[in-house]
Write a structure and sequence with these properties.
Length: 191
């Protein structure tokens, strides 16, 4: 909690040698607006940037493989999220209550999404998956039912790991699944 509750901290610069960010290190840094985690950062701990309510943009470098539980929860003004190409796992409630988050693109490296990743992300329009189907917790998308709009989940249709059984239970009012390409006359030209 090195910088927790610092309401004057508007910018953070991590040097190229920065490797790790501790538990709740920047919790409730309410003046922080933009964050870039360089490629050197390979670990961030639970709640590291939670409750940074003015944080609008996050860029996650390629060194990070796991976004831990509640890492960015309650970053209520977050609109821009760039996820590094090596992310494999996203923890519980990682982006919960990021009310203004509009879209997310997951890299092909993604392997697992824990429960409630996007709980109460009321304006989340689109989640794009670019690789194999990740492991979903049975409650991964729970909490999206309270969104103000239906979230479109885009998957690579030509990838055989995306099967109908993955979509079972996720067709509720908060989510709809579509392939990443347009079919001609209802016939898929890529699959």
């Amino acid at each position: 909690e090195a910088f927790a509750h610092n309401r004057d901290l508007a910018e953070v610069f991590f040097g190229a040698g920065a490797l790790s960010i501790g538990v709740s290190a920047f919790y409730d840094c309410s003046a922080l607006k933009e964050l870039t985690l360089p490629d050197s950062v390979n670990t961030i701990e639970r709640g590291a940037f939670s409750n940074c309510r003015e944080l609008e943009k996050i860029t996650i470098g390629s060194g990070l493989k796991t976004i831990p539980d509640r890492a960015f929860s309650y970053c209520t003004k977050l609109t821009d999220l760039i996820i590094g190409e090596n992310i494999e796992q996203v923890g519980e409630d990682a982006f919960g209550n990021c009310y203004t988050l509009n879209s997310v693109v997951f890299p092909a490296s993604l392997k697992e999404l824990d429960r409630w990743v996007f709980r109460s992300c009321r304006n989340l329009d689109r989640i794009i998956f670019t690789g194999d189907a990740p492991k979903f917790d049975k409650n991964t998308l729970d909490g999206m039912r309270e969104n103000y709009r239906v979230t479109t989940l885009v998957y690579p249709c030509t990838n055989s790991t995306w099967t109908e059984d993955l979509f079972q239970g996720y067709g509720h009012g908060g989510a709809q699944w579509i392939p990443d390409h347009i079919c001609e006359n209802g016939v898929c030209t890529l699959c």
